Here is the input.
Amino acid sequence: MNEGRIDSLLPPEMATRAEYLGVRKAEMPAFTMLMLAILAGAFISLGAIFATTVAVGGMPITAADGSVAFSTSLPYGVTRLLSGLVFSLGLILVVVGGAELFTGNNLIVMAWASGKVTGRALLRNWLIVYVGNFIGSMATAVLMFFSKQYTFGADIVGITALRIAVDKCNLEFVQAIALGILCNALVCLAVWLTYSARTTLDKIAAIIFPITAFVAAGFEHSVANMYFIGYGLLVKDFAPEFVTKVSERVPNLGALTWEAFFINNLIPVTIGNIIGGAVLVAAVYWVVFLRVKKD
Here is the structure.
């Protein structure tokens, strides 16, 4: 891969690196893989926490009589842009800090297609990492629940978190698949771009725009949703006084259920993420750069 060069790697060299990293990931010991996956779930959740806080609808203003009103919100597109920008923290921590993320690991398909990773090893990685991501995301959601951050900003942070969770649980099945496809195409492209990087700053720069784009556009990421919806459910189920106080400001709150979490969102979004990452990115780049070499 011409490691002596100081400029970025070219796409054919990136494909070789993706193949090499896919083998390393697939061969990783199960305990190490699980621990790194738990970290990734927590890292993505930190990005989600940052994005939720930035997405709040206006600043709280307390009047002399104690009543609370909110200043005018930023335009929708600007709010989404800022949310996406700060959400990039999650994948930056995963890539630079070192962790195993299910959506990014869809790129292991490149090593599998070259015959360097077995189908069993590929599925083993995906299963362990997915479970670890779920544990890390839900553990972060539990910790955030006990922090009572949902009460910050005169309850606006909690209201925003509940609205996000409700919106995600209201998706149609096919719609969720499509949004998942688009999301992980961008996530895997972000990871793919980091394979060209020579420095940490290169990696960060490669991550920011694809991740900002998927969040700003409203696409769906399975691991992020483990936190977003999990946190919303914890607030709804275990903070009844808070929910009673804010329920009028969270339309259709009844749609936020554990069943909707899995059936309406997590399952179809995961399917979409696999298609977007494994097919639209990994398989396409394998055909372009590695198929001939295998032949």
Observations:
- The chain has a mean pLDDT of 93.
